[in-house]
Design brief:
- It comes from Streptomyces naganishii JCM 4654.
- One of its GO terms (biological process) is peptidoglycan catabolic process.
- This is Lytic transglycosylase.
- Pfam families: SLT_2.
- The chain is built from eight helices and 24 strands.
- It has 587 residues and is an alpha+beta fold.
- The chain folds into three domains: 243 residues, no CATH class; 109 residues, Immunoglobulin-like (Sandwich); 112 residues, Immunoglobulin-like, CATH 2.60.40.10.
- Strands 14, 17, 18, 21, 23 and 24 form a six-stranded mixed sheet that branches. It has a five-stranded mixed sheet with strand order 4-12-11-6-8, with no helix packed on it. Strands 13, 15, 16 and 22 form a four-stranded antiparallel sheet that branches.
- Helix 2 runs antiparallel to helix 3.
- The longest helix has 18 residues.
- The radius of gyration is 37 Å and the shape is elongated.
């Protein structure tokens, strides 16, 4: 479970010292600027967390739900034993269930290949897994890594937490009214929809599977090009997962603890941490979220009534003597407290999205798109809305991606209400697809941008050699035809081409006489299809052979994009230097 920022953590002096020591050690070694003393943040334990919007441009993976606040013990775990030395069990907090630990390490290995610049350590995933779910409830997973029962965070209905209306029709969290964080890494359904991964190769993306969830968490942390070996990159990534300074400190403490040593324990033998970020003073940890104190303003106390004045001498008396006192005026009822209202956020004021820069999104396969998708958030009367998160998603049958390799990017609108998506990079699959823009957290009609990937093309062809291509009847040409393709002066690689021996310059039909290529069986062929230029834009044709017909013949090479090159081939007897047409019988 993960954090609702702005809540106070209940930590004692000892655990506070652990957090400070762990974070300080981390900043001194692996992350030079991952400190808790950033300007504008209250970093001490027990302080009110402040959101860092700049570090978390797309909110959080978890909807800022509650998380476990327990910190690692003061003593460090035993270091890993040397090879051949029996393992000595370390503190129980250092033990990670075997399947869960395997999932973290497999995710690290996959990210090392797919996003090497991220430098994601598995200990970071373990630290997040600890504070989110206590390592999948102490390793309550089956052999495939799926939890025996779903792990669900509190209902995000706005009562002490963020309000996130249902986005998955209850498919993941069983709630068709509001969302809940799901699984051992506590993804909210709307985030899992685009961030989910298949980590165990079973063809499914299940947030309740530790292999899927750990790999998804790794890609989520690495999605913005952050480098986990730097303090700023590590801090930004963790805050993007849950936007709370206290959460950051807790995760860093566990990460440093695991870095100093850990060991594998049997599945199901781990223990849940103590304390949750949504605990109220005097209440123990539990699955039911508490309402945030202070959400309603108390009524003003009523003013005390003034004491009545005693009667004057000689005034009216009651039978039996004694002065009478005029009755006190009734106390007016206290005014009810004004209802607590939350001012609308910029997101609440958005009525629709418009295309800020209409135009075609077109690129050649393997190339970057020149234009970028844009969306402008506007109110009902057309005024721009700044500081709104716009989520761009690539949909359709395409292998195009945004810069960084992701198919989803979240961008905050600027002062003009405009959000510009990262640059698109076309893959090898041609055709149309859609870049869809949505307002994060709102049910507003999407803005779709049509994008097209065209085949690789060349606009110019040239031979790489000017050596004449000649041959004697029945022989083979000494030189092979090699051409270079370019597009706007640059190398045109992987461009499709066709080579055909044609009848004449104005008759492109295939010639049935003269030079020819050979197929795999050695039979003559005079048209070659499915050719392609290499990475340098070069295309070298197979050897050419000549039949008994002499004369000048033409080889035409065409490519996608319209580039064409016609090459002369001459077949003549060894003593015929004119290489003209064959003499007639009369001659």
């Amino acid at each position: 479970m993960s954090a609702h920022f702005g809540r106070r953590l209940r930590k004692g002096a000892a655990t506070t010292a652990v957090a400070a020591a762990a974070v300080a050690a981390l900043s001194a070694s692996q992350a030079p600027d991952a400190t808790t003393g950033d300007p504008g943040r209250q970093a001490a334990a027990g302080s009110t967390s402040a959101p860092d919007v700049s570090a978390a441009p797309d909110g959080s993976a978890t909807g800022n739900s509650p998380y476990y606040t327990a910190l690692p013990p003061l003593h460090s775990p035993s270091p890993a034993p040397a090879t051949g030395t029996p393992a000595t069990p370390g503190p129980s907090e250092a033990g990670i269930p075997a399947t869960v630990l395997d999932a973290y390490k497999k995710a690290e290995a996959e990210l090392r290949d797919s996003k090497p610049d991220c430098n994601l350590p598995w200990q970071l995933l373990a630290a997040i897994g600890e504070v989110e779910s206590g390592q999948a409830r102490g390793g309550q997973v089956d052999a495939e890594g799926t939890t025996y029962s779903p792990i669900l965070g509190p209902v995000l209905d706005g009562n002490g937490f963020a309000q996130i209306s249902d986005t998955d029709h209850g498919a993941y969290d069983g709630d068709s009214r509001y969302d809940r964080a799901v699984g051992p890494m506590q993804f909210i359904p709307s985030t899992w929809k685009w961030a989910g991964r298949d980590g165990n190769g079973d063809g499914k993306k299940d947030p309740n599977n530790i292999y899927d969830a750990a790999l998804a968490a790794g890609h989520y942390l690495c999605r913005n090009g952050w480098d986990m070996s730097t303090g700023s990159g590590l801090r930004s990534a963790i805050l993007s997962y849950n936007n709370s300074q206290d959460y950051l400190d807790t995760v860093l403490s566990w990460m440093e603890y695991y870095r100093r040593g850990t060991h594998s324990i049997p599945d199901g033998t781990g223990t849940l941490p103590s304390g949750r970020s949504d605990d109220t003073p005097g209440a123990g940890p539990g699955p039911t979220p508490s309402r945030t104190p202070g959400t309603h303003r108390p009524s003003k106390p009523s003013k005390p009534s003034k004491p009545s004045k005693p009667s004057e001498p000689g005034g009216p008396t009651e039978p039996g003597g004694g002065s009478t006192t005029p009755p006190a005026k009734p106390t007016p009822p206290s005014k009810p407290a004004p209802p607590h209202t939350t001012p609308p956020t910029p997101t609440d004021t958005v009525d629709h999205l418009t295309d800020a820069d209409p135009g075609d999104l077109t690129a050649m396969a393997g190339h970057a798109f020149a234009r970028k998708a844009e969306a402008r958030a506007e109110t009902k009367d057309g005024k721009p809305v700044a500081k709104v998160r716009i989520r761009f998603t690539i949909t359709g049958d395409t292998d195009a991606v945004f810069t960084g390799g992701e198919k989803v990017a979240t961008v905050v609108t600027d002062a003009t209400g405009t959000a510009v998506a990262p640059q698109l990079q076309a893959g090898e699959k041609t055709g149309d697809f859609t870049v869809r823009a949505l307002v994060a957290g709102r049910n507003i009609t999407a803005l779709d941008h049509k994008a097209t990937v065209t085949p690789r093309a060349a606009d110019a062809l040239a031979r790489t050699s000017d050596t004449p291509l000649t041959c004697v009847p029945g022989g083979e040409f000494a030189d092979q035809v090699e051409i270079k393709a370019t597009y706007k002066g640059a190398v045109a690689d992987k461009v499709a081409a066709t080579a055909t021996l044609i009848k004449a310059d104005d008759d492109p039909t295939e010639n049935d006489k003269g030079p020819y290529f050979k197929d795999a069986d050695g039979k003559p062929v005079r048209t070659l299809k499915d050719l392609q230029t290499d990475a340098k834009g070069l295309l070298k044709l197979p050897k050419l052979y000549a039949d008994d017909t002499t004369g000048t013949f033409l080889l035409r090479i065409t490519t996608t994009g319209g580039a064409t090159l016609t090459v002369e081939l001459k077949v003549a007897a060894a003593d015929d230097t004119t290489a003209g047409p064959s003499p007639s019988p009369a001659a």
